[in-house]
């Protein structure tokens, strides 16, 4: 199985030199161990999603020089990789390279080359359907499918089925993908070798660098979407921290379901000694919310502090009395509490050095249910691409072996606790209904009329889509979101 080594890692477009060194180092080790072929994923040399950088002659020159350096350093072990071939119209196509003994064969789109004792290999991009058809026609001994696939949580199972169909046509098929978090895209890894026309399988871990041959005995379950999301978010937090020089986190704990899920994700990414929970109850906070937050901190082993915001809140109200006079208690007083908490979190971050992890979810963010410079603050939005139902599913997933998330956090009605007896349902439709409306609009591009025709309440459809449009300005000022879907709200444009 060690005759073909797959270079599963994340390669950044901001560090072509680093990419070249990483590929060269892994290739050298694999060649010394007797590997026959070493295969890199798409965009390994130029880095993931080069985008507009391809319009820069200096950038193109840099990755072309890196490619030539890799070719020149090859021995009898074949190194397979790809670089973008920029077209006159500004687009690009993958140029595949098979290098050995300082020389290379190149071809755009797909490449065939001889290796070993006259055996034939075909290389193409994993998403090129014509490559699979050509494999059935050419019957190569080896099919190499190169990819740089970022997780799209509802499409992973179908992608895996496509790979299995491709593998059924060839004696040996290898799929090599990038793995890790880059630019908030979570690259899924899962590089795989299929033998015996797809009947035998060996797979690299998901979301983790693996610069070796795939190991038998591990097959990812792409149908368990909650488990995939769990692993992906831990990877996202961990890699974002590593690439930003960050090794610890601060999480504001309210006892609500969102922060209750973000905290254990942070613990898995950084370790309990590197995560700090800050609880900031107000006059409207319930005892059970504080108790739930404390129990969560104890369950996860993090250090925490309770700072009541009542003195600060009272002082703010006194100072703002000339502005607030003769007006009833309302949104300004509610948001003031959230902004006090945001200040405390950012101060703790400055002092302790950890990143504040934002805890807003997709359902609330879509409806603008959050306070700018308050609970929307932070350096990274961890669950901003998860609907509320998915947050609850993740909470239950954490408890699959022992109770990490207090059951009361899962069972109680959601509340921001910014006024007496407040519930989210006072301001918003039911979260399940919000999700049905948003999924129909964002994923299936249905209009309000079409959503209503499917039986969704017209008043709720109108309200949710109005909130979605009107709160776009907020989402432009919130932390970057770890991407799990093709419908990240920061990219939403009304239609």
Structure explained in plain terms:
The protein is an alpha/beta fold and 495 residues long. The protein folds into 2 domains: 4-222, Carbon-nitrogen hydrolase (Nitrilase/N-carbamoyl-D-aminoacid amidohydrolase); 229-430, Rossmann fold. 40% of the residues lie in helices and 18% in strands. The protein has 17 helices and 19 strands. It has helices spanning 16-32, 57-72, 129-138, 156-167, 225-244, 257-270, 287-300, 310-319, 321-324, 331-352, 362-366, 388-398, 407-411, 431-443, 448-453, 458-470, 472-475, and strands spanning 4-6, 37-39, 78-86, 92-100, 103-108, 110-115, 119-125, 142-146, 172-176, 179-182, 185-188, 192-195, 200-203, 215-216, 249-253, 275-279, 303-306, 355-358, 380-381. The chain has a 7-stranded mixed beta sheet, covered by helices on one side. A 5-stranded mixed beta sheet has the order 1-2-3-4-5, with helices on one face. Strand 16, helix 7 and strand 17 (303-306) form a beta-alpha-beta unit. Helix 6 (257-270) packs parallel to helix 7. The model has no long low-confidence stretch (mean pLDDT 93).
